[in-house]
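Narrative of activities, Objective 1.

The group set out to show that a structural description can be obtained from nothing but a protein's sequence at a throughput compatible with the screening campaign. Below is one input-output pair from the validation batch, recorded exactly as produced.
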Amino acid sequence: MKIVSRDIFVFQEKDFFSPIRDKVDYARLLVLTARKLILNIEPASITATCSLKLIVDKMSRVFFYQEDKYFSVAFPFTTIVDRRGNITLTSYAGKRIDSKNISAVIAILDNVQFRLNPSLIDFYIDPNGIESDGLFLLEEIFQFEPSYIRFDLDPVLQNGKLHPLNHLDINYSQYSTYKLGLKETITKKYFENLQNINTECSFVID
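Output recorded for this entry:
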C-alpha cells in the first residue's frame, strides 16, 4: 500500500474544496492534486487545518479532509514514490504528468471558449499553444469515473431522516446523487476503509 499525505493551507482551500458539479471540476481537482503531490512545497511557517491523502492499494483514491467534511475521488494516475519520498505520476496511457502539462490542462479549463462549450471535440487547439500539451491528459481524465463520495456533518440543513445530521453524499450530479444516512459521526479511518476493497465491508440496514 502507498500512502502520501499533504497539508492544504488556507490560501489553497478554495482550489481543493470548491464544489464538484461536473467532469470539468473533477479534472481541475485532479491536476491541482497532481501538482501538489509532485512539487511537495510546504511552507514551514503556516499552520494547516486541512489535508489530502492519496491511498494506493487495490484502489487508487485521494481523500480530502476539512473540519467535519470529508470527500474522496478516484485518482486515475500511476504513482511511484522513491526512497526520498519524491513522486512520479503517469497517466494510464503511459504519459508522464509534469508541471508543463498540468499548466496546459488548467489553461484549457480556464479558456473562455472551452467554458462556454466544454467539449474537446469542438475546442480548437493551436498546435503551438500551451493547451496542446495538456489535451491528451484531459482526454484521459474525462474517460474516468470520478467515484465521488462525501461525508457531511450538517447541522444547518439537518431535517430528520430527509437530511440526517451525519450522512454520505454519493455522486456529484444532481441527477444521480443520493444520500446515505449515518447514525453517528465517522472517523477518517472509517471513511477510508469504506472505500478500500481490501478491508472488511460495512453493512447497511434500515
